[in-house]
Amino acid sequence: MQPLSGIKVLDFTTLLPGPLAGLILAEAGADVTKVERPEGEEIRRYAPRWGAESIQFSLLNRGKKSVTVDLKDKAALSRIEPLIAESDVLIEQFRPGVMARLGLDYDTVRKIRPNIVYCSITGYGQHGPKAYVAGHDLNYIAETGLLSLSFGNTGKTVVPPALIADIGGGTMPTVINILLALLRRNASGEGAYIDIAMADTMFTYAWWALGLGNALGDWPGNGDAMLTGGSPRYQIFPTRDGRFVAVAALEQKFWNTLCDLVGLEERLRDDSVDPEATTGALRAIIGNRAAEEWRQVFDGQDCATNVIRTLDEAVRDPHFLERGLFDYVLENDQGKRIPAMPVPVAPQFRGDRTDAKTAPALGADDEGGTAG
């Protein structure tokens, strides 16, 4: 039995933060029903298509149900009440005040289901001067100062490779707090209202910079701190053939091994004397050989250094294959199969690896609908 078997989730969210949270709950056994407008959420229509739906929608909504409701039609809201009455969790991702205008705010919903766990996901939270400000992931990491710690330079700015605020500030806190609320409900019978602001958790990601700034008054700038490019021990260096090496040899034992492996001059090994000179020397050394040569040098060595893999290379890595990250199966309406989305749910809680699941067709679980 999966840990969330029997838990029913009503999901009003779209795009990434809420749908991924719903996916994680579904992968742990919850019964998740998406509530969509009659034309469906916009991500269904994204490119590229994979069968009838977009690949993004399919990945994020594996194993869920779908019902369609025009939330602006007051008469249609009567269709929602029976779903609320049997739900344990409700997740929404509208701007503050929207659910109240629709007649679906927490105070109204808990009259139908008193012990419901109701979670709202927004950029800046339900209150505060920025509560109604529009934004996306890049805006939230910019507004909280996280992006200022490493973004390249005026000649070549760098957009982060991950949606840190959407997933790290939206999805993960949503799942954590829903599980905490359910745990408390098991003990007390009490429901909860949870206000998730994606921007808030960005300060958690800046933990080391906050320590330096608050305790010492030494606020890190762009790329000048130990973990953002200010140290030769934590750095990215280009190879001769246009690939890159990731050096994370922070501990002295790793640093000593790395210096020996690359043949760094003795006078430059104490990087506290002239960090820029040490960094420059490493850049020249690593830039003198191809990535595959460096891979052979670093593989099997205790130096916290490796060649940066492409994503295509990484998904074929025997280590990740052995751990079963890509064993779970997503199937589309045409019977085609690909690996399902890897999620941070332990295998013993996730269910059968061989059980192919689909994303729901729009309205598949409407009264009289046919499951997709």
UniProtKB/TrEMBL annotation:
Q: Answer whether the UniProt record assigns the keyword Transferase to this protein.
A: yes
GO terms for molecular function, please? transferase activity
Question: Species name for this entry?
Answer: Microbaculum marinisediminis
The family database entries (Gene3D superfamilies) matched by this protein are listed as:
Crotonobetainyl-coa:carnitine coa-transferase, domain 1, formyl-coa transferase, domain 3
Q: Name one Pfam family in it.
A: CoA_transf_3
Q: Which InterPro entries match?
A: CoA-transferase_III, CoA-Trfase_fam_III, CoA-Trfase_III_dom3_sf, CoA-Trfase_III_dom_1_sf
User: Where does the source fall among the domains of life?
Assistant: Bacteria
Q: Specify the protein name.
A: CoA transferase
Keyword Manganese among UniProt keywords: no
Which keywords belong to this entry?
Transferase
The segments labelled Disordered in the record are: 341-372
